[in-house]
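Recap for those who missed Tuesday's class. We walked through two folding examples back to back. For each one, the amino acid string is listed first and its predicted C-alpha cells come directly after. Nothing is annotated here on purpose, so try labeling regions yourself before you check the end of the notes.
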Amino acid sequence: MVTPPSPTEHRSRARPRLGRRSGERGALTTETVVAVSILAVVLIPMAYAFQQEMKLCRGYYYDAVAMELVDGEMEILAAGEWRAFRPGAQSYSVSPAAATNLPPGRFTLTLSNQTVRLEWRPAQKGHGRSVVREARVQ
C-alpha cells in the first residue's frame, strides 16, 4: 500500500524555485543589456568625432610645418638668391633634413617681372593646404 508523503518529506525534495531571485536575475540582465547599448550608442559617435579631430590636428600641423619652410626659403630668396633662377615657373627643392616632418608635396618657384612667388602643394588631399608666399624684388 502506498502512503502519502509526510509534510516534512514533501519539502525536502529538490525542485526548481521560481521565486523572488529569478525575477531579480532577469532585471539585472535587462539593466546590463540596456547599459551596454547606451554605452555603444554614445561611444561610437564619440570615437568617430575623436578620429576627425585627429585628422584636423594633423592637417594643422602639416600647415604649420609647410608655412615655416616656405617662410624660411622665401627670406633666402628675397635676400638675393632669386637671381640664381630663370624667369617663369619651376620646381624648387629644399634640403631633405628640413622637409622631414612635411608630407609628400611639391615646391614651385615662380619668377615674374618684380615678383618672387614660392608655393608648396601637398601630394594628397587631407595632408595640409597649399602655402603661398610672394615678395617684390628689384
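Example two. Treat it independently of the first, because the proteins are unrelated.
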Amino acid sequence: MAIIRKPLLPLKGRYGRVVFYHLPCGLICRFLTPHTRKRILKDPTFAEFRKCSKRMAKASKIGSAVYKALPEDFRQFWMYRAFVGEAFKMLKDEGMTGEQVLESLFSIYVEVWYIKAELRAAEQRSAARSSISTKRRNEVKSNICWKQYNQLSDLESIIHTNTFDKSASYYLSRSFGTGPP
C-alpha cells in the first residue's frame, strides 16, 4: 500500500488489480488480493489460519474474563493484552483446554485480590468486635458497686486475653498452619 501525499492526477477507483482512493492523509494506492471470505472459510490452504483464529478468539474471551474479575481501580489495558497473550501461549504450546487456562490465570492474578479482601474484612470484623467489647467494658464499670471492684479487675484481665484483640493475619496463619503451634 502506498500513500501519495500530493497527487498529480485525481485518480479514483480501480485500474486492473490496483485500487486508488482518497483519505485525509492523501491518495492511497493498493493491490487487490485474490483472497475472499469464501476462500478463507473453505480453502484447505487456510486451515492453519482458521485454527489459529479460533485459538485467538478463545484466548481473547479468557483474557477478558480475567481482566473483568480484577478490581476496577487496578485495571489497566495493557493487562488485558498480557492476559490474552498468556492464554494464547497456554492454548498453543501447552495444549491446555480453555477451562484449564482460565483456572490457571485466575489463580495467578485474581485470587490474590479475593484473599486481600477477605483479610480486610476479617480485620474490620475484629476491630468492630474489639470496639464493641470496650463499649461493654465501660458499661460494666459504670454499673458495678465499689465493693465488687476486685472482681471487676479479674473480669478485665479475662477480656484483655480474649481473642478479639488479635489481628486477622493471626487467625489466618493459625488456620493454615504456617505459624508456630
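Answers for example two:
Confidence is low (pLDDT under 50) at residues 140-144, 155-181.
The chain is about 60% helix and 10% strand.
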